[in-house]
Amino acid sequence: MTENLPSFVAAVFVALLLLYFLRLNQLLGGTPDAVESCSMPRWTARLLRDTYDRLEAAPITTHSYASRIPRALQRRYVVTGGSGLVGGYIVLQLLERGQPPETIRIVDLYPPSRDDMVNGPASKVEFVQADISSDEATKRAFAKPWPAEYRRLPLTVFHTAAVIVPSDRSKLESGFCESVNVRGTRNVVDAARTAGGDILISTTSASISIRPVQLWVAPYKLWSPSKWPRYFFQVLDTADFWKPLRTRAEYYANYPFTKAIAERIVCQANSKDFRTGCIRPANGVYGHPTDNTVGGPLNMGILPTWTSEIVQSFAHGINTAIAHLDFEAILASPDSFKLPQAGRPFTITDPNLPIRYGDLYFLIKTLAITRFRVIPLPPIVMVLLSYVIEAYTLLRLKWPWLQWVLPPIVGDIKHLKPAIFSICSHLIACNDEASKPVALGGLGYAGVLTTLEGMTQEVVEWNHVHRTAKKVRFQSSVSLADEIQKATSTSNIGDVGHEEHGYVMMN
């Protein structure tokens, strides 16, 4: 009997460990009651098809919501990351309200490629290629002469450029994000001041407020009321801004840490002669097939995922751009630097309750004319695999000589690291402050379209492209960031981001 004791103990341990993993898997794939109560009702096939038919007959365009765009100001504009998602919509909205194309300048690494920006008035907007991680290149782009009749107009800068690498949390992997998101923002602020700018509004990210999810629940809590992993459900607001900057480890990844630093650089620059503020869109910015939220699944066709029951708030690029223009209207007066809105961030989201990722996948499956299938994955298996992938990646970085014998991990799986599970948790955005009337310290913000309308319209546009052309694959912001990072490791090319698509993006 004594001889069999070690085997018996080992068997009990394995059984208990398996039970622990099974229960944790159940929790990671579930939805807390508090989240259920504040999420949208599930989308039905009838609702989706009715919305699709309505938007196919009358698509949402800048003209259709022109009355919602703040009135034109007699100013010049520089839009960093203007080839991307939010930056592109800012340019289109400026033009819609009557801004001459000659008074707008896009500063980016790559020229615009979106159909709505390479045709019509947007095609006349000046593009200046620059690497915002380079102080010299950034100042040169801002200092380029303007047409004589406009050069004396005051200057607004919309800074939407950034890189998103949501999976990297180690300081060993932080250089890329820091060079663009921190140094690049500092360069843009300096260049804007040097060029005579008096308003600068930056796109940051609601993910700044996310705390890293503590995935490993104590065994004795697994069936208790507090069974959910800590921070598995979070409200995205701006409360963190009014407190000291957290340490790197208190952010889920390098991306939100660098965006938090960049946000404070912008807000601390606020003064009478240089009014500033930030917009934090939540949580995924979408609005074009190159975004990660809707465009990512559309482009993949077959989507392995564990997030179908995850509830999150989203922000369409149109709504995010509108918030920037709302902010600019407030900061137009020199005395506005003393207002409660100046020198601070505002979180914004679509004008509706958050949705489940499963509703997004159902929308794509129901409405897209291209193939789409979801392959459910057990969360706990992906969690365990993520630690292996991260350890392997850091091993190659910590001891570079190992790169001769250990090949790099390629493809989307290289982003499967523990940090991903914090951004793939239940995240509910609160834009109550942004929606307050201006007189009460808000932006007077109200979204133009709901998440249902925004995501449906993106599929309408996707179907239109695929009815008239062969299979088209759009490059997402994360994959483009990978490409840029690879290029910067072999050359002096830096990066000016886009938002959610184009170059990099703004989440």
Automatic annotation (TrEMBL):
- List, alphabetically, the Gene3D superfamilies matched: NAD(P)-binding Rossmann-like Domain
Q: Please name the PANTHER family in this protein's record.
A: HYDROXYSTEROID DEHYDROGENASE_ISOMERASE FAMILY PROTEIN, PUTATIVE (AFU_ORTHOLOGUE AFUA_1G06450)-RELATED, NAD DEPENDENT EPIMERASE/DEHYDRATASE
Name all 3-beta hydroxysteroid dehydrogenase/isomerase domain ranges: 78-208
A GO biological process this protein is involved in?
A: ergosterol biosynthetic process
Official protein name in the record: 3-beta hydroxysteroid dehydrogenase/isomerase domain-containing protein
| Record carries keyword Oxidoreductase | yes
Matching entries from InterPro entries are given as: 3Beta_OHSteriod_DH/Estase, NAD(P)-bd_dom_sf, NAD(P)_dehydrat-like
| Claim: Lipid biosynthesis is one of the keywords in the record | no
Q: What terms describe the molecular function in GO for this protein?
A: 3-beta-hydroxysteroid dehydrogenase [NAD(P)+]/C4-decarboxylase activity
Parts of the chain that traverse the membrane: 6-22
Q: Which GO terms describe its cellular component?
A: endoplasmic reticulum
Q: Which UniProt keywords apply?
A: Membrane, Oxidoreductase, Transmembrane, Transmembrane helix
Q: Which domain of life is it from?
A: Eukaryota
Kindly list the organism's lineage: Eukaryota, Fungi, Dikarya, Ascomycota, Pezizomycotina
- Into which family does the record put it? Belongs to the NAD(P)-dependent epimerase/dehydratase family. Dihydroflavonol-4-reductase subfamily.
